[in-house]
Design a protein that fits this description.
Largest sheet: none
Helix content: over 70%
Number of helices: 10
Number of strands: 0
Order of helices and strands: HHHHHHHHHH
Number of domains: 1
Shape: globular
Low-confidence stretches: 206-217
Radius of gyration: 23 Å
């Protein structure tokens, strides 16, 4: 239980830090497409590594065609459309406003579930949503006073991104029960990466480059030399033993 809470807290911290990293990338001249492509290319190997480990340990049943098509579509909505709109909104609004708008995501899921599946929304849930949207409105009006149309455009993009991710959450619940969360995330992120043209071009460029040369500092070169010498020494001892 404690480990689960720690992992959830760590995930929330890293999720919040994402917007700060994107803002720093913009400050150094990066565009939205490149930042999104780098995010997908760095994350994809970890997801598929988790899939390989899960397949070796759990030996799950094969994914059906219907579930596969559904995961590809949901990956496009939740990992490409939502992320692109979110990253694009950060060009116009502050990190604080973007985070607050995205934290409305549970309320959007609640409304979509009531609209699509007829689930009843309780009185306390309506009250909680009213308080949440009132708080967002206060922060939004404060930013509009200083940033004007840029705050309106950025806030609209962030909200549309939250809606796209809410659609992913609403429809992915049943699929997760059948295929598991690890395969769901891996297939969804893979679908989004395939649709991201900058990510595809960047991956092709890196794959076609035979050697990547890095300029290392003298300290780094000495460290690598010591590690290499230690490995050779251990192998020679193992041969004599």
């Amino acid at each position: 239980m404690k480990s689960s809470l720690l992992l959830a807290a760590l995930g929330a911290v890293l999720f919040s830090a994402k917007a700060i990293v994107v803002k720093l990338c913009y400050r150094y001249g990066a565009d939205t497409e490149s930042v999104l492509a780098l995010r997908m290319l760095f994350a994809l190997p970890f997801f598929w590594g988790a899939v390989a480990w899960h397949a070796a340990v759990k030996r799950p049943t094969p994914v059906g065609r219907r579930d596969l098509l559904a995961m590809l579509f949901l990956g496009f909505m939740g990992y490409y459309v939502a992320s692109y709109l979110d990253f694009l909104s950060l060009r116009y609004i502050s990190v604080g406003l973007e985070r607050i708008i995205l934290y409305l995501n549970p309320t959007i899921v609640l409304v979509l579930s009531a609209w699509l599946f007829g689930r009843r929304i309780g009185a306390r849930q309506w009250q909680a949503m009213a308080v949440a949207y009132a708080g967002v409105a206060l922060v939004f009006l404060h930013d509009v006073r200083f940033d004007g149309d840029a705050a309106v455009l950025g806030g609209s993009l962030a909200f549309l991104g939250a809606v796209a991710y809410a659609i992913y959450l609403v429809y992915s619940g049943e699929i997760v029960h059948r295929v598991g969360s690890i395969r769901m995330v891996a297939y969804a992120s893979g679908s989004a990466s395939a649709r991201d043209r900058p990510a595809t071009r960047l991956a092709t460029r890196l794959a076609n480059r035979p050697v990547v040369r890095l300029k290392a500092s003298p300290t780094a070169r000495r460290t690598v030399s010591r590690i290499s010498w230690s490995c050779r020494r251990r192998r020679s001892r193992a041969r004599w033993d």
